[in-house]
Design a protein that fits this description.
There is one protein chain. A hairpin with a 2-residue loop joins strand 3 and strand 4. The chain has one domain (3-83). By secondary structure, the protein is of the alpha+beta class. The chain is built from 2 helices and 4 strands, in the order E-E-E-E-H-H. The radius of gyration is 12 Å and the shape is globular.
């Protein structure tokens, strides 16, 4: 995902703009892995293999989301890990 795409992305649930971006890996000025965060509704949207996955809750897979959170928990803010929607690692 190119950073300039942030100028047109909003949360698909509540239309909040701008989304917070956290980059995990970047190659040639393209975000390969990262996360977009809506600070209004506390939803996160993974960026995996350069593609922002901005799906509504009912189309997201719990197993895939938890795998993403576990893989990147060292780089994610605690609010996403323990309070993020639609899934989180809160016990």
């Amino acid at each position: 995902m190119r950073k300039k795409l942030l100028d047109i992305l909003a949360c698909p649930i509540d239309k909040y703009y701008p989304l917070e971006l956290i980059e995990f890996s970047v190659k040639d000025d393209v975000i390969v892995d990262g996360v977009l965060i809506c600070n209004k509704c506390n939803r996160y949207y993974p960026i995996i293999d350069e593609i922002p996955e901005m799906l509504p809750d009912e189309l997201r897979t719990k197993e895939r989301e938890l795998d993403f959170l576990n893989r990147w928990k060292e780089k994610l803010p605690e609010k996403v890990i323990y309070e993020g929607k639609p899934f989180n690692l809160k016990v």
